[in-house]
Amino acid sequence: MRGARGWVIAAAISVAIAALAYLVQPPQDSPEHSSNSDAANGTSAARLFAQAMGHPTDEVSGAFAPPESFGVMFVFTPTSPYTSDEAERTRLWVRSGGLLIYASEQGDPELDRAFGVTRLGSYTGGTLQLGNPAVSGVTRVTGGSSVIPLDPAADQVPFLRNSDGLVTGYVQRISSGAVVVLADPLVLCNGYLDKQDNGRLLADLLGLASPTAAVVFDEYHHGIILSDFTPQAWVTTPWGAALLWLLVAVFAGLVLRGRRFGPIIMRPRELARADVEWAVAVGQLLRRSSARAVTLGLLATATERTVAARTGIPLQPRERFWNALWVRVPALAADLAEAENALHASAASEADLMKAAKRLHRIAHPIEAAGRRGHLPGSDRVD
Questions:
Q1: Is the dihedral of CA 237, 240, 242, 245 positive or negative?
Q2: Whole-prediction pTM value?
Q3: Is residue 335 within 8 Å of 382, Cβ to Cβ?
Q4: Which 8-state DSSP code applies to residue 49?
Q5: Do 191 and 117 fall into the same domain?
Q6: pLDDT by residue (tens digit) across 232-246?
Q7: Relative to the CA of 317, which of 41, 304, 343, 372 has its CA 20 to 30 Å away?
Q8: Where are the beta strands (DSSP E) in 149-223?
Q9: Do 197 and 248 belong to one domain?
Q10: CA nearest 100: which of 194, 179, 17, 31?
Q11: Is 36 inside any structural domain?
Q12: Are residues 190 and 296 in the same domain?
């Protein structure tokens, strides 16, 4: 009952936290200006507008790759940073004929580097007016109350300025394509398209491409990718906050429920095995596997090792051992050679195996064997 009560309390805490998070968080918000959001700062209307103008639309998601056809790609305020490779692939796509509309308040470091975007360091008044024929019929647009102005180069033609005369939008031709950079994405967002000439601005930007060009929106850099698994992502994003609260609730439930299943039992200390036990175990293993030939080989090797220790002749190299044994103790060499030559026939049955093992044992330990037989070693020849 105590464990069930703990889980009930943890579930109640989870529900309360989820309800509080839902009530505190604004019901609709899209700070990254997603094309899937109908919030005032989302860009779903821009996607619908492109469809209404006859452009097929899609989104980049799952894996990043610029569209195969050289149409239009919108990049709104990436919340997941571009890698240097992704920025370079985007630049090559523009050079080949693509139109990139890049709108971001603070920009992406790699994308800014790839397209030579320079931003001034401080916020100033918002976007208000323009005076450039690149977007004909547009005399005034409305966006955010403050922006970080741009510092265009000679080939970056301004078409949007704020009340202070600072550039907030420009267009640049790059080989066969073009890039449009906006310091204020809100001028193309849902809640602003019906203000001033914002809708006309969007139409003119889409008009820079062919009437049937495909229009895609980069949602890949609005999602969760491998580079997003940072401590900040666990706090500042809705999914991270939800997982964090879930972990807190589960931990609280385990703490409330936690108890031992019984008394702690100390592990008994293992006793050392005797050498005889290991020998018996190996012997039983060899016997069960019917490895008579292996057993005889082990016995022959052990016998040679014992003879080498007794006579003082190094066992390796083996050919030199046998030459020295024939010179020093020819009788022992003859007995050992005869016993080893008969090993192949001794593997036929366990009785022959036992007979061969006894013969090798007498050769390896002649004093012990002679003592059991009741006379001195060398009184008779070992058969």
A1: negative
A2: 0.54
A3: yes
A4: H
A5: yes
A6: 545 555 666 777 777
A7: 343
A8: 156-162, 167-174, 177-182, 215-218
A9: no
A10: 179
A11: no
A12: no
